[in-house]
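> forwarded from #structure-qc
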């Protein structure tokens, strides 16, 4: 087992985060990279990168395991997953602490993430019902027809840094329960949480070979996309990479779902309940330091609501405590690293240069000298064409684009190249209904903080936020990780 990760937990200065390939914990021979706590610069672990040869070993082992795993009845396949769910719940604080230390989000947020991950497993445990087919007798005289769903083989997942506890579980519980085997390549920035979660999956009794964990960067991804034994690729990350993954995986004849980045709009109507709306906006825009693909990033106040809304918003945002996510009372943790901080500061500067007015400026927040901290920032009077109105910043920066009417607000939302998530705040059912119907966005909230679909619904981004047909989790995951077969029978 990966005792090396356990060493990291007890605080030894340099532990090694292992890969799990062909039933063994191994340290691949590629370059090693330091995993750094973004709150204080402390080195948490060393991550040796795998290469194409390691991917090949993982794919061969996963394929051999698949030939056995697909024969295991689905009711038996889900038994380790029941135990896995219980282990996730039992270890929620430990997992949350690892997650906070490597990613930066607050401990409460991290533990919520682990609980949402457990819900994915819970839904995947319903696979005996979920993968049932259809049947109809006498489709012609004496001929019966039915469909069955069968596993497709070796599947692989490539995941981002912002939800290391949850996003891998959008994938492998569904894939495994459906009878596939799975290779996970987590974000190289936050490898410790997914490694500990795989340890728990093995502790739950999953047979060796059904899961493989291959750490690394681009070389591993490229090897996965090209490997002939891998049938399907699930990707979650930024849009430019999602697009590359979608094209490459398809060019190699693979089924692919590639979830990309976002630029989410929060539309506030003049009749909105202001205190509740402001609380929701704070959670959406500044929770997880804005590093959620569902985070509100553009605030669109409609008409005269702008002034009172912004006054209350800035007052409350100023009061949010920025600091190490392990400390109680902290609402906004650090960004994932110094490079991300630099990128976010660059966007704030660019926004101001393009004419925005910083009515709350988080650039010089004093939350710890070695941490990647940026405080909540609100940029008012942002032009619709400005980079901070159009591009994904992925930090605690809210750009305010004022609209005259609901029609005007919808035009702002629909002009975006992204279509992941949006929320309207209003007391009017008519306005909400019209908004839900007309916005070109896949996940729409009314008066929500973050309209994140639960595990039994799909995660349904549109436009440049998603490349593919079948989305993550829910019934889409069952369809994605299975092939349908149509059986027709006539007895003489
Ligand atoms: P990223 O695209 O940089 O990395 C994602 C994964 O792709 C990582 O495992 C990384 O190793 C790999 N990768 C990076 N560059 C690559 C390349 N050139 N070729 C091959 N593989 C490459 O994303 P990130 O910074 O880790 O995560 C943040 C992004 O993820 C944001 O854009 C966010 O909106 C998005 N995201 C989207 C969703 C969603 O559901 N749509 C959910 C979470 C995060």
């Amino acid at each position: 087992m990966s005792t090396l990760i356990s060493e990291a937990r007890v605080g030894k200065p340099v532990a090694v985060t292992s890969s799990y390939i062909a039933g063994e914990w191994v340290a691949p021979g590629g370059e090693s990279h330091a995993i750094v706590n973004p709150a204080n610069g402390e080195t948490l672990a060393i991550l040796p990168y795998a290469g194409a040869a390691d991917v090949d070993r993982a794919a061969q082992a996963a394929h051999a395991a698949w030939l056995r795993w697909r024969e295991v009845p689905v009711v038996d396949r889900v038994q380790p997953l029941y135990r896995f769910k219980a282990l996730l719940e039992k270890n929620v604080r430990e997992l949350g602490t690892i997650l906070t230390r490597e990613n930066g989000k607050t401990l409460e947020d991290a533990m919520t993430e682990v609980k949402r991950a457990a819900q994915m497993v819970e839904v995947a445990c319903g696979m005996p019902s979920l993968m049932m087919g259809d049947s109809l007798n006498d489709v012609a005289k004496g001929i019966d027809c039915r469909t069955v769903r069968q596993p497709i083989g070796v599947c692989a997942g490539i995941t981002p840094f912002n939800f290391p506890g949850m996003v891998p579980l959008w994938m492998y519980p569904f894939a495994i329960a459906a009878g596939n085997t799975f290779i996970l390549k987590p974000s190289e920035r936050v490898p410790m949480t997914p490694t500990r979660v795989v340890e728990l999956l093995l502790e739950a009794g999953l047979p060796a070979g059904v899961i493989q964990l291959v750490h690394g960067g681009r070389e591993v991804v490229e090897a996965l996309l090209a490997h002939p034994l891998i049938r399907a690729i699930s990707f979650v990350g930024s849009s430019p990479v999602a697009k590359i993954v979608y094209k490459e995986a398809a060019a190699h004849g693979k089924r692919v779902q590639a979830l990309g980045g976002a630029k989410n709009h929060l539309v506030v109507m003049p009749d909105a309940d202001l205190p509740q709306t402001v609380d929701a906006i704070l959670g959406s825009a500044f929770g997880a330091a804005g590093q959620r693909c569902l985070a509100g990033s553009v605030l669109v106040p409609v008409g005269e609501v702008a002034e009172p809304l912004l006054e209350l918003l800035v007052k409350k945002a100023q009061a949010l405590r920025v600091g190490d996510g392990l400390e109680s009372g902290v609402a906004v943790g650090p960004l994932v690293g110094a490079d991300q901080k630099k990128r976010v500061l660059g966007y704030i500067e660019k926004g101001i240069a393009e004419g925005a007015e910083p009515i709350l400026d988080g650039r010089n927040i004093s939350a710890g000298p070695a941490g990647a901290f940026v405080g909540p920032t609100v940029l008012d009077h942002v032009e619709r064409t400005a980079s901070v109105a159009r591009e994904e910043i992925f930090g605690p920066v809210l750009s305010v684009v004022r609209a005259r009417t609901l029609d005007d607000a919808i035009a702002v939302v629909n002009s975006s190249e992204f279509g992941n998530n949006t929320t309207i705040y209003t007391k009017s059912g008519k306005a909400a209904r019209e908004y839900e119907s007309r916005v070109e966005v896949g996940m729409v909230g009314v008066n929500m903080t973050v309209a994140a679909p639960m595990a039994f619904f799909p995660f349904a981004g549109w436009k440049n936020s998603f490349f593919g047909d079948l989305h993550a989790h829910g019934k889409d995951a069952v369809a994605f990780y299975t092939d349908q077969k149509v059986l027709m029978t006539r007895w003489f």
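QC bot note: Residues 1-11 have pLDDT under 50 and may be disordered. The pocket of nicotinamide-adenine-dinucleotide is lined by residues 158-163, 167, 185, 187-188, 217-218, 221, 236-238, 241, 244, 259-262, 293, 392, 394, 420, 459, 461, 465 (CB under 6 Å).
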